[in-house]
Design a protein that fits this description.
single chain; DNA binding; Nucleotidyltransferase, domain 5; 3 domains; alpha/beta
Length: 346
């Protein structure tokens, strides 16, 4: 049985060589596995035209979008990352001599390396906050994993009873995930659901505390005294631990600062840059909890069930999960340095 498809130049050369060596058409076909028709055609083309290469690559319909058209399409995508295929097609066809279909646009974009992706959600950073993030990264650029093991990470998070996904999609190349035009800025906001506060370090998961009402300074002082203090003194009995918290208003209240000042001989509060969830590995633990909730066979139908599910998932988080997150701190710092304080992919 003969082979399908074009013959390579090497295969054509083998056929010509075998025939010139004195093998018959049938013997050459049996030796190389091609049909007798193919053997005869290739040798005849060589004998008459000295042809040993295929010209089929020059056959077929010419592409409607040439190199110049691809550059124009790339400009259209760069000007509006959120444009749909329909919009890109309409804009491309305006003023052009040849009109192309949406199918052609979609195929061309894929050939150019573009794909439709959801944009990364990143905090809206001011120039001042970028500078503070960069200063933090520079100050901790030489910290090793052993240094980061001395940090206890904390944060609050809200889990919604009914998850809503309103994400948009964009066109981008593979290496453009953190391009400013491929990002969606987010701001802190509330919402219905269950709020919890948690803490962990490389050594252990800490407690997860439900917050029944809004987390004001009084409520946070109770968390600090009842949960942060025993966790830090247990994990770091030699007073070499760092406690991380973000810059939420309740964290920076006077009574909180006074409490930490009274206990500064037991542990150190890590000075944290603003708008830096990408530097806090506990954010990834919240993502893990969120995903586990969404794949539950029986979804929570009220806030109490949701709270119970969150607490149960938290206690079952594997050690390698949160330890791996702490070990990711050097790359996170490096990413902030590379971005000059800007948002990163973490």
């Amino acid at each position: 049985m003969g082979k399908k498809g074009d013959l390579s130049d090497f295969e054509r050369g083998m056929i010509v060589g075998a025939r010139r060596a004195g093998l018959s058409i049938s013997e050459t076909a049996d030796l190389l596995g091609f049909s007798r028709t193919t053997i005869s055609r290739v040798y005849r083309e060589w004998s008459e035209k000295e042809k040993t290469s295929s010209e089929r690559q020059f056959c077929g319909r010419k592409c409607l979008v040439d190199a110049r058209g691809q550059r124009r399409m790339a400009r259209l995508v760069g000007a509006d990352r959120r444009a749909t295929v329909t919009q890109i097609t309409t804009r491309y066809n305006q003023g052009g001599q040849k009109s192309i279909s949406e199918r052609t646009v979609r195929r061309t974009l894929r050939q150019m390396g573009y794909s439709s992706r959801r944009p990364h959600r990143v905090p809206l950073l001011s120039a001042k906050n970028r500078k503070l993030r960069l200063q933090f990264a520079q100050a901790h650029g030489n910290w090793t994993i052993e240094d980061w093991k001395n940090v206890a990470w904390s944060d609050e998070s809200r889990f919604l009873l009914r998850h809503s996904d309103g994400r948009v999609r964009i066109w981008r190349l593979q290496h453009e995930s953190m391009d400013p035009s491929c990002l969606v800025s987010t701001v802190q906001a509330g919402g219905g659901g269950v709020m919890v506060w948690g803490i962990f370090s490389w050594h252990s998961l800490g407690p997860l505390v439900p917050i029944e009402h809004r987390c004001n300074a009084t409520a946070y002082l109770s968390i600090v005294a009842d949960h942060v203090h025993p966790f830090m003194t247990t994990m770091y009995p030699t007073s070499d631990g760092y406690f991380q918290q973000d810059n939420a208003p309740c964290h920076k209240a006077g009574i909180i600062s006074d409490w930490f000042l009274e206990h500064d001989n037991e542990f150190t509060v890590l000075k944290w840059p603003p708008q830096s969830p990408d530097l806090n590995p506990i954010e990834h633990l919240w993502d893990v909890v969120e995903r586990e909730i969404r794949i539950m066979d029986v979804q929570p139908t009220n806030l109490q069930q949701l709270c119970d599910a969150i607490m149960s998932i938290w206690t079952k988080l594997p050690e390698e999960c949160f330890q791996h997150l702490v070990e990711s701190m050097p790359p996170r710092i490096e990413a902030v340095l590379k971005a000059k304080g800007g948002p990163t992919r973490y």
